[in-house]
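[job 0417] fold request received: Transposable element Tcb1 transposase
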Amino acid sequence: MLNSCVMHHHTGHAQVIIVWGGIGKHSHTPIVCIAGTLNSQRYISEVLEPVVYPYLQGLATAIFQPDNFQPHIVQRFFVNYQIELLLLPARSPDLSPIENMWTMVAQ
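[job 0417] inference complete; emitting structure tokens
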């Protein structure tokens, strides 16, 4: 039990912050930081209604590529607001242009 041989680490729950952003051909949404657990209601009230919908309304034509957060209530939001979706297979980050942006941010 030499102190030089012991690696200390925190075993409790870590604070989670989700960072959400959207990009277009010549524009981007504001970055949204969400602390804690993200459920469908919070996703709608903190991301889709205040950020995504106004952003899409400001574009002449738009097709929204959703992330993989697809509970039924979120699907209903897209139908109710008549937002056209570009659906891609789950776990296909190579098909999502924003993944390249997140890589640049990480670097």
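[job 0417] notes: The helical segments are 40-57, 72-80, 97-106. The chain has a mean pLDDT of 84.
[job 0417] exit 0
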